[in-house]
Amino acid sequence: MPTPINRIVLRLIPAAFFAAVLTHRSAEAAELRVCVDQSSPVKAMDAGIAQAVAKQQGLQASIVPFDGSGDDDDGLALSTFPKLLASRCQLVMGFPLDAQGGVAPDGTHATDAYAHTGFVLVTPRNAATTLDQLPKGSEVAVTYMTTPNLYFSAHPRITAQIFTTDDETLKAVAHGDVAAAMLWMPYVAGHLDKTAGRKLQVSPLAEPHAQWNLVALYSADSEAVAQQFEQGVDALRRDGRLQKLLMPYGEVAGGAQVATPHKVALRSQASMPGRLIKVSDAVAHNGDVGLYTVQQAETGRATFRSNCAICHGPDLEGRAGPALKGATFANPEANFHVGDIFKIVSENMPAPAPGTLPHEDYVNVMAYILQQNGYPAGSTALTFDSALKSTVRLVYREHTQQASN
Ligand code: HEC
């Protein structure tokens, strides 16, 4: 039997509880705590956007620096982002998402994109602005393990010069050692100095996985703050300030011309904070790409030539056997998966002597088939097991572009 005093306590507890929650909420909402990558060439601009958004929303901005360069060649692990969001900030700025369907790292959500960026073609002024315009046999510099390494197979007229760092890749074109370079726009904008910028031009690449969106990451706990961030960005976009916040950075690029691509509407022309992570890893995280390494596909090409080309054609175009490339083979409506096709390859092929090749050959040939169907390489090698188990859908990646031509 509760005494009167107990009744009062019982009534007070929920009231106190709600009061605490409300106070907590409003204390949290008063602050916008944003992690900014200190290894990014445009960290100052990144912070500038956070400050402007906070001010617009009546919040107090605090910028939490972190080192996004990663410990090794593979860049920053994607698991770093949920950790940052759990302990240090409400938003991580400048995360790049593949415009062809990128997803946020596990345990995080992405805001609407606040900027658009991507991989660009850097050439001498008045030279080619697309890969197809480059003279036959042109050498084109790329950075190891970045998305543009994929573009050579679709453009056999050009050859790759692969460098280990973006600095070397940019220098190669600035010094005239190569006809062009393919680089990540935020890097280029931060590193083209005035002299080089006058001699070089920058054009967007109209290639698969060349267009990226920049978003802020947040965890479920910070949903409300993320919404305020989006509202703030919208307001800045409407009144033209976002464009200005992004633009100085284009000018720092030394007056390099940034052409507007025809196919992709740029939300804002300049790009955003630098390479938080190796872009190939961000692609890999989409789950349907980055399934194999460049090396595997290269080796697979030779294996394919000697074991499969006689029936499937040297360019996978089909002869006695069906085509292994294109919209008919990798048809979205067929709802076929990488594992399904690998089962056929490893158990039934080559047709005259099914299942007789070493596992490694089957894996490399599969990598080559994926590459030829527009899947980008990544940093993790395909294995016999992962190929068999893969539930990644088999869909020709250049389907829409080629079909519309
Ligand atoms: C002697 C001819 C021949 C050789 C050599 C051969 N294939 Fe085939 N392949 C075929 C024929 C014919 C079919 C279609 C009939 C079938 O599905 O059983 C086929 C089907 C396939 C399919 C299924 C295609 C689809 O659309 O479902 C794949 C994948 C494939 N081959 C891959 C390979 C690979 C990889 C090699 C080399 C390791 C290879 N084939 C070697 C004749 C050949």
TrEMBL record:
Residues 1-29 form the signal peptide. The keyword Heme applies. Gene3D superfamilies: Cytochrome c-like domain, Periplasmic binding protein-like II. Residues 295-373 form the Cytochrome c domain. Coiled coil: none annotated. InterPro entries: Cyt_c-like_dom (IPR009056), Cyt_c-like_dom_sf (IPR036909), Solute-binding_3/MltF_N (IPR001638). SUPFAM superfamilies: Cytochrome c, Periplasmic binding protein-like II. PROSITE patterns: CYTC (PS51007). Keywords: Heme, Iron, Metal-binding, Signal. One of its GO terms (molecular function) is heme binding. This is Transporter substrate-binding domain-containing protein.
